[in-house]
Amino acid sequence: MKIKNNDSLMEYNIKSLMVPLMLVLFISTLDQTIVVTALDRIGQTLGNAAAAPWIATAYLLTSAVTTLIFGKLGDMYGRKSVLQISIAIFIIGSALCAFAPDMFWLIAFRAFQGIGGGGLSSLVMAIVGDLVPPRQRARYQAILGIVPAIALLAGPVLGGLIVDSLSWPFIFMINVPIGIAAFVIIAKKLHLPVRKSKHRVDIAGGILAVIFTTSFLLLTVFGGHDYRWGSWQIISLGILGITSLGLYILVESKVAEPITPLRLFRNSVFSISSTLFFLSTAILFVGMLFVPLMLQTVFGLSAFLAGACIVPLLFGLIAATMMTGNSIAKTGRYKKFPVIGSFLCGGALLALSLIPDHSPVWLIILALTILGAGVGFFIQVTVLAGQNAVSTKDLGVATGALNFFKNLGGAAGSAVFGAVLNSAMQKYGHQPMSPYHLLFMAAIPLAFIALMLALAMQEKPLSETAMEIAEGKIEAPEY
């Protein structure tokens, strides 16, 4: 992008693009939560309730893979065109889902929709990285960070409302007008350089990424639920995942244009940022998934009230994200925030592990709010520090890798701690609160590991103006 020695021009450009970028993030996140409420109704309508969970799983599988691949394609061929392709696939997939004649085709169309959905989040954050220098980037990413939180809140409520008052196809059709509006505005307003790569796309790496991601996610979906963790099915998935990961690393070290350049992980800041994103997302899912379950099974709250108790967690996350973004933009300092976040997450998990079953619910809500704030202190820094640690030509693939670790963290957090809870329930079934105490206690080491990594992370300087980037004064070294 050409900077005409005028940062106000840069600021005008990014402000004019914030609305369509926020719309893209909104529909990509909303689509993962709005469907959950409608699964039962869709299964009944299409006559195959047993297969309904695959409506969510199919999207998760394909979107996790394309998070990596589309980030790389954006680096190779220009982010604007790749983002437009992602939006187009997502819109077409949404429309196809709405008119699916049976469960098989709905699952297939959801997988197709996920191909487009996977690239949306990574490409949006990478585009912000193109338009805004690192120090000011935190403020804009903080604003964008609010959107997924709102979508997480709105999804289940909106999904229930649409299913009750209209019909389930409308939960997919809602994406179409929003996506078209975002596509048109981006086509007119977004101006980025068009890149052409002389290298070929890493097809072998893409196939291995699909195999690894699929085996890992299927392991988390089936493990401890459909099959025992020690069953041959789960062991086979584990072996397949490890083998494909090893081959993926081997291929990526050989090809000219790898999907995930291994040199990124030789940079300690990027490696730590990726791991922190994984850990903080796993912690977030512990709060979002298992606290409402505890409130229903132990405290006797309805599903609606238990779900409403998650709202303070998201408010805490939003507040911490905004505060972090503004502070980084003013001071250029970011290392202290994941340190604070580690203490807050660890403290909240410890409080949840000690709360007796006769405690007032407001104490649990307070702990959730602190947990959300702790995770919020991570989100900005993991993306910002990770992007700031790599060279400009790797911005897209780095952002895609960061989002990939976030997705894996959510899947691993759900699976591992779900297994911990199931095991504890079998052992302490007569003590309803004990399994949850054990669950939250088991999550505390994640906060401790995050603290050690945050303390070890080197704080690289953030450029203050667009001119510093244009002139090459602030640039990550080649490694």
Description:
With 479 residues, this protein is mainly alpha-helical. Helix content is 77%, strand content 0%. It folds into three domains: 1-202, MFS general substrate transporter like domains (Growth Hormone, Chain: A, Up-down Bundle); 203-254; 262-479, Growth Hormone, Chain: A, CATH 1.20.1250.20. It is built from 18 helices and no strands. Helix 1 runs antiparallel to helix 8 (175-189), helix 11 (268-297) runs antiparallel to helix 17 and helix 14 packs antiparallel against helix 15 (361-388). The radius of gyration is 22 Å and the shape is globular. 50% of the residues are buried. Residues 1-9 and 465-479 have low confidence and may be disordered.
Please give the structural blueprint.
Layout: H1 7-34, H2 39-46, H3 53-77, H4 79-98, H5 103-131, H6 134-165, H7 170-173, H8 175-189, H9 203-222, H10 232-252, H11 268-297, H12 303-308, H13 311-331, H14 336-354, H15 361-388, H16 395-427, H17 434-456, H18 466-470
Helix pairs in contact: 1-5, 1-6, 1-8, 3-4, 3-5, 3-9, 3-16, 4-5, 4-8, 5-16, 6-13, 6-15, 9-10, 9-16, 11-15, 11-16, 11-17, 13-15, 14-15, 14-17, 15-16, 16-17
Q: What attributes characterize this protein structure?
A:
479 residues; single chain; 18 helices; 77% helix; disordered N terminus; disordered C terminus; 3 domains; Growth Hormone, Chain: A; mainly alpha
What's the helical proportion of residues?
Answer: over 70%
Q: Note the overall shape.
A: globular
Distance separating the two termini: 24 Å
Q: Per DSSP, what share of the residues sits in E-state strands of 2 or more residues?
A: under 5%
Output the CATH class name of the largest domain. Mainly Alpha
The major beta sheet can be summarized as: none
- The tally of helices reads 18
CATH superfamily membership of the largest domain, which one?
MFS general substrate transporter like domains
From the coordinates shown, what is the CATH architecture of the largest domain? Up-down Bundle
State the CATH topology of the largest domain: Growth Hormone, Chain: A
Order of helices and strands: HHHHHHHHHHHHHHHHHH
